[in-house]
Amino acid sequence: MPDLPSDSHLDDLLRTAREAAEAAADVHARWAGRIGVPDASWKRFADLVSEADLAAQRAALEVIGRHRPDDAVMAEEGDAAETPLPSDGRPIWIVDPLDGTANFLHGHPMHAASVAVAISGRVMAGAVTASALGQRWWARRGGGAFRDGTEIHGSGITTLEGALVATGFPFKELDHREAYGAQLTRVLGSGAQVRRGGSAALDLCFLADGRFEAFWEAALQPWDYAAGALIVEEAGGACERVEGGTLELVPGSIIAGNSAEMLALLRTCVTREV
Length: 274
Known about the structure:
- This protein is of the alpha+beta class.
- It folds into two domains: 7-151, 2-Layer Sandwich (Fructose-1,6-Bisphosphatase, Chain A, domain 1); 164-271, 3-Layer(aba) Sandwich (D-Maltodextrin-Binding Protein, domain 2).
- It is 34% helix and 26% strand.
- The protein has seven helices and 14 strands.
- It has helices at 7-31, 51-67, 101-105, 177-189, 200-208, 222-234, 260-271; strands at 41-44, 47-49, 72-75, 92-99, 112-119, 122-130, 135-140, 145-147, 150-151, 164-168, 193-195, 214-220, 238-240, 252-257.
- The strands form three sheets. Strands 3-4-5-6-7-8-9 form a seven-stranded mixed β-sheet.
- Strand 8 and strand 9 (150-151) form a beta hairpin.
- Helix 4 packs across helix 7 (260-271) and helix 5 runs parallel beside helix 6 (222-234).
- The mean pLDDT is 91.
């Protein structure tokens, strides 16, 4: 595994991530209540985009461009969504300007801005800011995870029975629905309480700070989980693919736990044959 950048360099990357997430979240606060579903458009089936998403992305990218003009950017909206990971070790910024667009358009508080930066495919720093909740989370590799300035850790719950498990419905991915329905049935049968909030970034942050014990989803994009997964890991948790393997910065599944043991318990439950 390549050596980490220096602490001072990681701190600089984290400052930019936090500033960019704050800039995007400020846009959310200004647009909140001014637009709804009728004002948005459809990118594809069940996938909304609004002027708030686009304005938030512009705000985040302006911050990144000012501090890190030579870095690459992978962002949810527009051509930046197709940016490949650099092959030359150049940092790449992974931006979800408004995770939870449908929630935002309905006035639901579960939405946030998520900004991460990766080098050689490994996330080095990340920040998630939720304007409607008035909360912010951040982490940098090897430096711990924080919510509003206080270091956070996952909960001490070690069994699925009694655990609060977050999930996301594969509402955009028709091919995953049947398998996901069976997974959900098995998790409910484990004695876990299941919640679906509509923002993977926030689900992961809630896992990191002890409000959830585990999380899984069948299909996500890198910008949905890049910052949140690092925050979970730096809080003492673990993140992988549902089917096993490292959580790389390409579309796919995710499973996470407040520990490697909790992740393994959830994976066994989710993937076992009936």
